[in-house]
Amino acid sequence: MILLIIIGVLLFCLSILIHEAGHFFTAKACKIRVDEFSIGMGPRLAHVHKGDTDYSLRALPIGGFCAMPGEDGQDENGNPCVDPHAFCNKPKWQRFLVLIMGGLMNILLGLVLMAILLGQETAFASTTISKFSSHSATQSAGLQVGDHFTSINGYKVRTDKDLMFALALANPNSVEIQVKRAGKAITLSNVKLNTATASNGKQTTQLDFYVQPIKKTPLTLLQKTFTDTVSVVRQVWASLAGLVTGRFGLNDVTGPVGLVQVISESASAGLQQSFLSAVNNIIYIIMIITVNLGIINLLPIPALDGGKILFLIIEAIRRNPLNPKYAAAIESAFFAALMIFMVIVAVSDVMRISTGHGLGG
């Protein structure tokens, strides 16, 4: 078990490493000097200096950074930065590439991890019903063999992962299902699903149908890798929307502390089958995390890559950068809020692990 947790932590660090590597190598290609390349935040544990860059390992595995001169338009003394290798003195398109490549590399890593998982399968799941189990509630509601799912409660279904995600979020006592049958769109309203009671007392949806397999070929593997990764991206956005609207609470958010528990639980479940199943469970979790990291970092929030891209777009529209003092103040405020949020999530994780309930109840 300890080995599996170490594998999980290393894979998590890999997602941070590849994110910062996206920034680093793009900056180097654009001849931007990188003063420090760090994995982790907080106190420095070890470092080595090579060329113009300090390569650091820091204590807190909650992120990393590439420190480039002139990121805020100023030098270390607060004066306008005149260094030709400074970030602020490069063309806007180069700065844009440097900023966006971190998130894109995370999504690329997600594609690779997804391909590793799918490559082990003998066939892929579709969204077309092949048969029903006995006493099927969905069959009684009107679904038929050959029906192709297109929507669950308004959530578009393009892959089996979309189908599982939408059904997991749905109220099992009343679900609206849209399918395509013989080329025609069919809508079934107020469908009641079979459920079972989990150990925590919550009701979980029980699928009572099977779907047709998709033959595994190099082409279908490539297609499935892309569509399933897009499905994870959509789930990220749907989850973020749920946080904003209040559908999900703080208890549904997991930070680095809770990640260890998630990896441990997934590894334990996988070990009931085999060591490979445990590793695959961890890979799947890290795949979701790295896609999350890529997407969230590209949101237009100051202190994140997306916020810096937003400032860059504003600079392009105004044809003049924002006042460095104002930009720095905005980023500092959002960074402080982000750190406070991460502390709250960490406390909630600890409470959930020790008592079974986080701050969200």
Automatic annotation (TrEMBL):
The chain crosses the membrane at residues 96-118, 282-301, 326-347. Residues 9-340 form the Peptidase M50 domain. It is found in: Membrane. Its cofactor is Zn(2+). It is a multi-pass membrane protein. Keywords: Hydrolase, Membrane, Metalloprotease, Protease, Transmembrane, Transmembrane helix, Zinc. The keyword Zinc applies. This is PDZ domain-containing protein. It comes from Caproicibacterium lactatifermentans. The lineage of its organism: Bacteria, Bacillati, Bacillota, Clostridia, Eubacteriales.
